[in-house]
Amino acid sequence: MTARYSWRAGVGFAVGAVLLFAVAPVALSDFRLSLLAKYLCLAMVAVGIGLAWGRGGLLTLGQGVFFGLGGYAMAMHMKLADAGPGEMPDFMQLYGQLDALPWWWRPFASPWFALPATVLLPMLVAFLLGSLVFRRRVRGAYFAILSQALAAAMVILLIGQQGTTGGTNGLTDFQGFFGYDLDDPVNQRMVYFIVAGVLLLLLAIARQLMLSRYGELLVAVRDSEERVRFLGYNPANVKLVAYVAAAGMAGLAGALFVPAVGIINPALIGIVPSIEFVIGVAVGGRATLLGPVLGAVAVAWAKTALSEEFPAAWTYLQGLLFVLVVAFLPGGLASLVRMVRRRRPPPDPAPVSPAPVVSPQEVRA
Amino acid sequence: MSGLVVRDLRVVFDGFAAVDGVDLEVAPGDIRFLIGPNGAGKTTLVDAVTGLVKATGSVRFGDDELLGRPVHRIARMGVGRTFQTATVFEELTVLQNLDIAAGAGRGALTLLRRRRSVPVSVEEALETIGLAGLRDKPAGALAHGQKQWLEIGMLLVQDVKLLLLDEPVAGMSHDERDATGALLRVVSADRTVVVIEHDMDFMRSFANTVTVLHAGKVLSEGSVAQVQADPAVQQVYLGVS
C-alpha cells in the first residue's frame, strides 16, 4: 500500500511539474503567467492552512499576519537594495519625517538576514502566540476570533506607522530582485519558476507531515484532544507544530508574492484577505493535500476573471460560494472526487466476524 | 508492579463534595471493582486520579504522587483510563489508533517519519484484543464492543501499569461481556486494574475485590461475598439478589 502511494505521488508531482514548468509558460501570456505566479503564492498559504485547519482543526483566520510578515520582510530588503547602501528608501525620503533609517529596518539590508527572516519571523511569532494560546486551551471559534483580531491589529499598526511602513500604500515600486531587473519579462518568468518550484517543495513537505506519524497524531488531536492527553501527549505541542509550519509557509508565500506581484500593503494582509485564504481552502477541500492548492488557485482565478466582468458582484459570489460549500460539501470539491470514486468499485465483501477476545477455556484456566 | 493508594481524597464542585474523603488501597495486580449508585462519585474519583479534575488529599501510585500533575504527565507515569462512551479516533484505522497510543515517548524524528513497520507491542495488542483482522478499518466503523476493546488495547500498548476502566461492558452482549472479563484477567497478570461498573453479574464473575461508594464516601470494601453480605450495602444499593 505504501509503495503504491509513493508511486502515485511521484506521478502526481511529475504531472504537476510538467504543468507548471512546461505547459503554463508556453500556453500563457506574460501577463497571465504573472497572474498565475500570484495565485500560486496564495496557494502556498493554502497548503499551510490545509495542514493546520484541515488536519489539525485550527481555524486559522489570520494567516494574513504571517503572509504580511514574510512579505514586508522581503519588501524591506528589496527597497533597501533599490536605494543602495546607506540610503533611505524612496518613500521615507518622500514623507520626510526621518533623518535616518529606523533601527529595525537596518538588518534587512543584508539578504542573509532578510531571506531567512521571511520564514523564521512568522514562525517565531506563531510559536510565541501558539505557546500562549494552546497551553491555555483556547480553541474553536475563540482561536479563530483571536487570529482575526491579530490580523486587524497588524493592519492598524502598519497604517499608523506610515513614515516607516509606507502606511496604506504599503511598499511598492520595486526595481530589482537580487540584482535582476524586475521590469524584464525574462526575470519575471524566473520569479514565476521560483514560485512554482517552492510551491511543489511546500507540497512535498506538507505531504510528508500528513503521512508521518505526526500527521496521524495531528488528526487524533483534531478529533479528540482530551483522549490524546490521556495517552501521555501534550496536545498543545502537537498543534503548535502545525501552526508554526503553516505560518512559515504563509511567510514564504508573502516573500515571493512581493517580487511576483510587485507590492505588499495592508489591504493584502488584513481580515478580508485572511478570510479569502480560508475560503479557497474550504472550497478545494481542507483535509486533502491538493484540495487547498486547487481551491486557492480556482478562487483567486475566479476573482480576477469575474471582477473583470462584474466588479461589484464578486464579493457576493464569493460569499455564496463559501456558504454553499460549507453547507452542502463540507469536505470541499475534493470530496466530490472521493464520492465518484467510491461509487464506482463494488463494495468488497469482507464479512467481519466479531472477534471474541479470549476463548472461554482461557477464562476458566 | 505498583498499587494505588488514595488518602482522604476530596473533590468539591461549587461547594458540593462529589468525593468526600475517600481512602482506598488497591493492591498490585488486583482487579478492583468500584460500584455505587449514580452520583456516588465513582467517575469523579477516576477523574481526580487521572488529573482531569482538581482534588485535595493524596493519590499515590507506586512511589509517585499523582495529584497536582497535568493529565499527560500522569498518563506517562503509567496510569491509563477509558471513558463511559468509547473514545477512539474515528477517522484513523485500528492500527493507527494503537500506534499513536504506543508513541507518547517518541522523539521528533520518529514522529516526522512514516510508520514503516508495526511495533511489536501493537501487534501483540491487536492479537490480545482480537482485532488483528480489522487493523486497517477506520475505528469509527467498529461495533460498540470492539471500540471498547480497542480502547483497552490502546492502554496496553501505552504500557500503563494502572488501568482505570469506566463502565467497560455497558451496552455489550453477554458474549462480549465474557470476552471483556477474560481480557481483564489477562491484562491484570502484570497490571493493576480498577473497574467502575453497574453490571452486577459482570462484577460477581470477574471482581477480585470490591469497593462500594455512596455519596462520595466509601461505604464498604472487601471480597464480592463480603460486600454482598454487608447490610449497609444491601440497604443503599445492591438489594437482596
TrEMBL record, chain A:
**Ranges where the record places region Disordered:** 345-365
Domain of life, per UniProt, equals Bacteria
InterPro entries for the chain: ABC_transp_permease, ABC_transptr_urea_perm_UrtC, LivM-like
Recorded topology in the membrane: Multi-pass membrane protein
GO cellular component terms listed in the entry, alphabetical order: plasma membrane
Tell me where the transmembrane regions lie.
Answer: 6-28, 35-53, 112-134, 141-160, 190-206, 240-257, 263-282, 289-307, 313-337
Q: Where would you say this protein principally sits, based on its record?
A: membrane
Q: Where is the signal peptide?
A: none
Q: Where in the cell is it found?
A: Cell membrane
- Residue stretches of biased makeup (Low complexity): 355-365
- Write out the entry's keywords from A to Z: Cell membrane, Membrane, Transmembrane, Transmembrane helix
Q: List the CDD domains hit by this protein, alphabetically.
A: TM_PBP1_LivM_like (cd06581)
Tell me one GO molecular function of this protein.
Answer: branched-chain amino acid transmembrane transporter activity
The protein's name is Urea ABC transporter permease subunit UrtC
> To which species is this protein native?
Phytohabitans flavus
TrEMBL record, chain B:
The record, for Gene3D superfamilies, names:
P-loop containing nucleotide triphosphate hydrolases (3.40.50.300)
Q: Which domain of life is it from?
A: Bacteria
Short name of one Pfam family: BCA_ABC_TP_C
Q: Which UniProt keywords apply?
A: ATP-binding, Nucleotide-binding, Transport
- CDD domains per the UniProt record, alphabetical: ABC_Mj1267_LivG_branched
Which Gene Ontology MF annotations are present? ATP binding; ATP hydrolysis activity
Domain ABC transporter, chain residue ranges per copy: 4-240
Q: Name one GO cellular component term.
A: plasma membrane
Listed InterPro entries = AAA+_ATPase, ABC_AA/LPS_Transport, ABC_transporter-like_ATP-bd, ABC_transptr_urea_ATP-bd_UrtD, BCA_ABC_TP_C, P-loop_NTPase
By its UniProt entry, which PANTHER family does this protein fall under? CONSERVED COMPONENT OF ABC TRANSPORTER FOR NATURAL AMINO ACIDS-RELATED (PTHR45772), HIGH-AFFINITY BRANCHED-CHAIN AMINO ACID TRANSPORT ATP-BINDING PROTEIN (PTHR45772:SF8)
Name of the protein: ABC transporter ATP-binding protein
